[in-house]
Amino acid sequence: MLIELEKRKEPSKAMVYLTPLIAVGLTMVVGALIFSALGYEGARAAWAMFVAPLVDPGKWEDLGLKAAPLVMIAVGLSIGFRANVWNIGAEGQYVVGGLAGTGVALATWHLDGGWWVLPLMCLAGAVAGAAYAAIPAILRTRLNVSEILSSLMLTYVAIQLLYWLMNGPWKDPEGFNFPQSRLFQDFQTLPFISGVGYLNVPLSLVIALAVWFVMARTTFGFQIRTVGAAPQAARYGGFSQERTVWWSLVIGGALAGLAGIFEAAGPFGQMVPQFPTGYGFTAIIVAFLGRLHPIGIVILGGLVLAVTYVGGESAQATLGLPSSATGVFQAMLLFFLLATDILITHRLKWRRSAEGSA
Amino acid sequence: MSEDRLELRGVTKAFPGVLANDHVSFAVRPGAIHALLGENGAGKSTLVKMIYGVLHPDEGEIRFDGKPVTIPNPKAARAMGIGMVFQHFSLFEALSVLENIALGLDERLSPADLERRIREVLARYGLTLDPHRTVATLSVGERQRIEIVRALLLDPKLLIMDEPTSVLTPQEVTQLFETLRALAASGCSILYISHKLHEIKALCDKATILRGGKVVGDCVPAEESSRSMAEMMIGGSLRDIKKAAGRTLGAPKFVVEGLSLEGTGDFDVALKGIGFSVGAGEILGIAGVAGNGQNELVLALSGETPGEAAAVRLDGTPIGALRIGERRRLGLAAVPEERNGHAAVPGFSLADNAVLTARGRKGLVNRGVIAAGKAAGYAEEVIRAFAVKATGPAATAGSLSGGNLQKFIMGREVLQVPEILIVSQPTWGVDAGAAAAIHQALVDLAARGSAIVVVSQDLDELFALSDSLAVINEGRLSPKRPIADFSLEEIGLLMGGVHGEADQGAHVAAAPVVEASHAH
Amino acid sequence: MDAMWFSVAMTIVAASTPLLLAALGELVVEKAGVLNLGLEGMMLVGAVTGFAVTFATGAALVGIVAAMLAAVAASMIFAFLTLTLASNQVATGLALTIFGVGISSMIGEGFVGKTIPVLGPVFPEALAGHPFLRLLFGHSPLVYVSLVMTAVVAWFLTRSRAGLILRAVGENDASAHSIGYSVIGVRYAAVAFGGAMAGLAGCFYSMVQTPMWAEELTAGRGWIALALVVFSAWKPWRLLLGAYLFGTVMTLELQAKAAGVGIFAPEFLAALPYLATILVLALISSRRSVGAAAPACLGRPFKPAT
Prior knowledge:
Chain B is of the alpha/beta class. Chain B has helices at residues 44-51, 74-80, 97-104, 111-124, 140-152, 170-185, 197-203, 226-234, 294-302, 324-329, 350-358, 372-385, 402-414, 432-447, 459-465, 488-495; strands spanning 6-15, 18-28, 33-37, 59-64, 67-69, 82-85, 158-162, 189-194, 206-211, 214-219, 252-261, 271-279, 283-287, 312-314, 317-318, 332-335, 365-366, 369-370, 420-424, 451-455, 468-473, 476-477, 481-482. In chain B, helix 13 (402-414) packs parallel to helix 14. By secondary structure, chain C is mostly helical. Chain C has one domain (2-293): ABC transporter involved in vitamin B12 uptake, BtuC.
């Protein structure tokens, strides 16, 4: 028997939502086999990585904590990806957003409070992320530089900027010479809602909903989708390619920057050199797993990847899995997702091998 | 009696949902020029792709020089002595003529040897071509010559020509026919695919007519009239367009003056001082060989590439600097040549494709929010009014056949009742029934008082539709004149770049286009 | 010239070679019309495999071959997804990089801090006595491989029939297919070549430059190599120039850091290659000729029409 692909007349709607689940299933099976071959308890590792945190209510708060930044960044990236704008430097925009917010926090550190400080920090984060993403935008629209390379290069630059600030100007004067900033004051940290997590968890859901509405229902969303699907048709429809590049990069940058300051003002409570944890890159997987659809990004992308993070951490402790195993599982997940994409436009057909060669 | 060069017996090929060829049988004699005649979608291309080894028959037999053969791939076809010149050239823009020809040869020759043989072939058939030029710098006619030379280098026994004249001027067509006749005289069979009846009458010894994938008849073209062959091809009698008789054309509505535009890309044609005016109710045809600035002109008129304000005026308002969206609001509509990815987004539903251009004039958007119900409603209206075969407004544009999509696109623009409609190749690749419907819609729109510009390479279409005509060549447009004042020869000369008054005595185009079809 | 300058020149050669190796592979891949953004990932796979196999067998040559094979295997994942299943090349390339980062640090976990013997100069010591002679004969074999490969790739692309076919596939896949060339087959071969070269580049880092394992030791050099391909306008000899230009920038950065030049913070110097890349891309890409030099089908999936 041979498997053959046959083109469908219309793309399958069901497969759009089924393939991410198929990809998770395949990743678990193949991952279990690979890790068994490497001498780990493969099946338990796959279970720990993809299921265990979901069935353990004690881990749910952790899931929200991990999912919130991933969802925010991924939702922003998905706008660009839909328009064929490949911002892969979200990690840099996230760092710069965190730094800008930190800057505001350090400048207002000696105040006795003030309701406006936290919103200003968030605003600074979003604006800085947007501005940092505007560099690839200007390079692309004015000088025709691929945003893939420029945005990624800028990530390395942002990380060096972080190191410099931590080692020099922003080092905590009372921090025993550790390269990290002061701890933020209470009025500079995100409110914590017990049972839910920091405020960024519900906020990320609100943002995802808002982006969904814009992308699905408004002319702006229509413009983004058209530019991505058929640039010439977009121009014919009266949509500017240049403006689309600008907006998708700037919005993506703003959301990544906002996610950055939310992390700094939330779980971290200060700025540290270990701030870049790869959320900006993982968010790319989240966006694809969520089918570049904001709601899908929340339910499929953000949740699944958060489960792998939380599960990966506990598997390190319980199964002795290396920390990098999480990344391997995540990359495999994206591989399988991209592979199963073909099922949307094609169907599998079983064929007798005898006819297959005809 | 010698054997047939090529014989097909019961050749059948099915694609999902379509029977492209249904038990096709015919034979071609050595040295004969044999026409394969049929409309777009009749199965001609599928058939010749099987002869050339690109596709493989599901059933039936192909015999070559009397022996049954299987042709696994084009390379095997070439080894047998089958050459093919495709309708869409398989050329590489960035490579030289020599490199392009080398790629098409299975034999390994040193560049020097290859160049020598190319020059031999060029000399034998009286063709001119510089082997060292980059393809991107060549005219369409020269590009076709590369394909022909490539095929001739193999000393083919059978040469397949797929719609070879669609991009040539009448004069270039004459030259091509001379080459083909010389080739046939040397014993090579030619399988000539076309839907242009006058060409087949002028060139071919025999014709096989295909319709819906089946052979519906054989004939000797010289003994048939164009009309009789057309009726066999279409399978019914031709419908004439109902033009409102004795219309008087209104005052100039759409005026273009001194429209010039630099080409931006490497392969663009610059527009040079284009000027014309179209009155209310007038259909202006713009003829020309592909690649002479038609696309650039349509983009400049529609506003996809804005220019100087005063160069384009609609009802007296200068609109030359406005973008396409703003021009639409003032009553302009346009249909570019390419359907997929330009006039429509294949992956989008028909409702979304309605939003693409009709959102302003049809009120499909309310304060930046798309009114999905209204969009579907308008798509539905277009589907019904233009008899588009589709499952409904939710069907993707990509799922429609070419002709149905074109009907949808034309309908989408026409039902917006624009003041001025600019349309490029309105019936390219569309079957005769759909073409007649589209032509009728254009005529009806003009009767309402809209101005219409039709850019087309199909002279038959322009003669049938237009009130007046102008010819574009290398980015320049000839002065427009009433269609009745043009002779076919004159249009041919203009298309070939001979400007100014065509001398009455100059019968340069000893025309293969004798039976040009005012008669349609 | 004194000895210090010779040693700087030696360092420049060492910094430039892996960039050249990786970018040469990618150049061929892109000439075939495929954009493989997984360069960094394939380099890491090569680096860790080369190190691990050399550590286990003690034979550097075995390590190098294994590194190339491993990187080819990684490139075949990319090829299967993008060529056979026509997946998005950008996303798949990114996935390959994420995969390479993960798998290399996982395999490399047990090797952190361990060392292997340096893959030393290929010519006998006697030839490399004088500093100047050392500059000619004192390099690791991979340096000479990279230079020979530049010539080979240049010859292949412009003079050989196979190279002509490869360019044709990258220029117009539909036409190449209709003439009867296997677009997918040519692209598989190109991607495999790119993988092998990335594997070589990767083991240069783990076996020649610092024969001690460290996580993500390529530090984004794969992305710089990708930028170099754009810089070269897809011409091998210009690629050689670009690689040595960047090697020089990186070396100066290291030298300045070592010398403790106080004007610039070390973090600024570390950011310099990336800033330089952006600057060079900006200067190069705005020129129209570069856009025209890009293979016309670059990054577009090929789906043969029926």
